[in-house]
Amino acid sequence: MQLHGRIHQLPTYVKQFIAAFVIVLSVGYFTGLNFVKQTDSTNTNGLVENYLGNEDAEDVAVMKFKKGEREMLTIIHTHILSISLIFFLLGGLVAITSLPKKLKAFLMIEPFFSILLTFGGIYFMWKGMLWMKWVVMISGTLMTVVYIIAAVAVLLQLFVSAEKK
User: Where do the structural domains in the chain lie, given as residue ranges?
Assistant: First the structure.
């Protein structure tokens, strides 16, 4: 079965359905990123404080406490499952685009490595491996960049005719 370029052959109403899905999915994804920003986890110090607390620090505006093991397992479990589904669905849409096959493969597969590195890194950081904060920041950033490229690529491919490709 040939998947490459199938997105161009879809009926208009299916293309509109996919566009609506990708837009709503993106609103959800970026709302989650806004939550990360609200927890000050967009920098390494804020990331560490969010999971390990800051009760030993002096002169803090907001006191944060180390998360418990059940809370950490819940956070990691729900994020790995839900974000995996997000990238599985988006990857399925990328698969039917007419993007170069190596780019498609990267956009489809890389997010799963970033998911494991990001949330595994958060867990190991919580366990005391503080250098993992850098792994979390890099993999989380790469995951977001890949999401943006994939979502924009799908949206653009929906409205580019097959003759232009």
Answer: 6-164
Rounded distance between C-alpha atoms, residue 13 and residue 28, angstroms: 23
Go through 30-56 and write b for each residue having 16 or more CB atoms within 10 A of its CB, e for each that does not: eeeeeeeeeeebeeeebbbbbbbebee
What are the φ and ψ backbone dihedral angles of 142, each rounded to 5 degrees? -65, -40
Helix/strand/coil (H/E/C) assignment for every residue in 20-52:
HHHHHHHHHHHHHHHHHHHCCCCCHHHHHHHHH
The DSSP element (H or E) to which 134 belongs, if any, is: helix 132-158
Q: What's CA 111's distance to the chain center, in Å?
A: 7
Residue 28 CB-half CA count within 13 A: 12
pLDDT tens-digit readout, 24-54: 999 999 999 999 888 777 888 889 988 988 8
pLDDT digits 0-9 by tens, 13-22: 999 999 999 9
